[in-house]
Amino acid sequence: MAAAPADIDALIALMARLPGLGPRSARRAVLHLVKRRSTLLLPLAEAMQDVARTARDCVLCGNLGTEDLCAICTDDRRRTGQICVVEDVEDLWAMERSGAFRGRYHVLGGTLSALRQIGPDELRLPLLESRLGPEGVTEVILALGATVDGQTTAHYIADRLSGRGVSVTTLAQGVPVGGELDYLDEGTIGAALRARRAV
Amino acid sequence: MSGARLSTLALSDFRSHARARLELGRGTVAIWGANGAGKTNLLEAVSFLSPGRGLRGATAAEVARRGGSGGWRIAALFQTPEAVREVETGALPGEPRSVRLDGKAAIQTDLAHLVPVLWVVPAMDRLWTEGAEGRRRFLDRAAMSLIPDHAEAALAYDKALRERNRLLREGARDPHWYAALEARMASAGARLAENRATTLTALAAAQDRAETGFPAADLAIVYPEGAAPDTEAALAAALEGGRRADMAAGRTLTGPHRADLEAVWAAKGVPARDCSTGEQKALLLSLVLANARALAARGRPPLLLLDEVAAHLDAHRRAALYAELDALGLQAFLTGTEPGLFAGLGASVQCWEATEAGGVTTLAETAAP
Lengths: 199, 369
Hints:
A: four-stranded parallel β-sheet, two-stranded antiparallel sheet, globular, B: Rossmann fold, Glutathione S-transferase Yfyf (Class Pi), Chain A, domain 2, 2 domains, six-stranded antiparallel β-sheet
């Protein structure tokens, strides 16, 4: 069987490096694009070029934006004294979608791991500390994953910020909204029970 | 019998099995054949229906058939009182093992909740005389069978331990980082210690209750440094207090990863390591049977894999083993070189003969001996 032309093969190889795509799905996606060159491939290429040119990390919180400071960090109404610490930009976006949080963020860019050579400096933690005073921070909310690395990182930050005059809190773990107990694993039910409150 | 029963087992490119499919009844499964015919490989496939690296401690790449595609697959159906459960595990070439439960992607520790798998293999003959690691693994496997969450606690502890050991080796001095890891270790480690203690109690009770031809063992968890901290607070304090010594050693010197399982032949008062080879094997089998009994009493009878066990027992103990398997009503997989070894298993035994040609195993169902 004749293979695809070299250019298209190269594109498939690049697409296959995207999360959620393997060689097979990358081939399908590229074929789909190439068949729709004017309606999809060119607009996509232009949009990607635009984003590649304009996208940058916010120098303060690590969010993605098009300026040195992102829209959240330049919005004074979000200077509430609360900073929500998240592992990655996608977590920030998830928090924003909820509309429940009106403060600012700090994106770590990962979790602590000696084995993967990711230390506090790689996680933009000195920058977090430097934000506390100037931004009038009173509460740091740790919204990290319930994994060993996530919990270690949360503990680390709480320990490091103790005595800095800010309260450090973490998200609750327990029964999801609209969830049924029967579908929960034992660990989640245990966590929910420990975090019970008066009604 | 309550619990889950393995009713279908299908292998593709697993060790010497290019393709095999077994439909299983309620009784014991006996596989016989010459050395190297692929009998143990079949038991190993069953052991991969539990979390971890199976009864040989093998990686995903190691179990792929030589001369095959490089990938492998095991598919199994379990009959439970509520439903038929589908388990599929395998690996694509160069990739880690994946698990699917009822057609959906799952993680290995989910398997611990479905059915416990216990085994006795010839490599365990030296369990009582070799290093503590093997006995600790044996204890943890028993704990995992009785307390499925034990696997998660063990993984969490091990992950934090490896992270801390790396910091120690690199001479890192950030006290917050140590404190964060030690908090994880203390929390998971206290659960490990508690689960292990619960397991020992359950094994002792199962031995006390049993009418069996196998010797009872007095069991204890011991540590090289004597007593060890086993509560969360005590473990956290010990880890914090031990940082300097640990850094000098380049590893963590205290905690549940240092535990050892000590067994004493109860009737004689002789430590297992000083017993004869045959007695050591009998003690090991006795503990695995006690574990199976404890599980059966909880409504979760295990799959029991006994590799080359029958041949090493005298006729009296072999009869006791078969009587015990019959009384427990659990699914056991036995291997041996001669069909005659399985003569005492009764009419419900299912027999397969394994033969090997060109590195590939063929299984043929034969009449019960």
